[in-house]
Amino acid sequence: MNISTIVFFFGALGGMLSSCAQTPDNKTTSPEKEACKVLLGKDGTEYAYPRLSKDKKTILYQSNETGKWQLSILDIAAGSRKAITRDTFNNNFPDWSADNRLVAFVSDRDGNEEIYLVHADGSNLQRITSDAGRDIHPYFSPDGKYILFNSTRGNESLDIYRYTIETGKVERLTQTNDDETCARYSPDMTRIVYLRNGPTMDDVFELDMSNFLGENITKTPTVPDGWPMYGNNGKWIYYSSMESGTYCIYRVKTAGGSKQQLTTALFGEEDARVYISADGKTMIYNKRKGNGIDIRSCEIVSPR
Question: How many Cβ atoms are within 10 Å of 218's Cβ, its own excluded?
Answer without folding.
Answer: 22
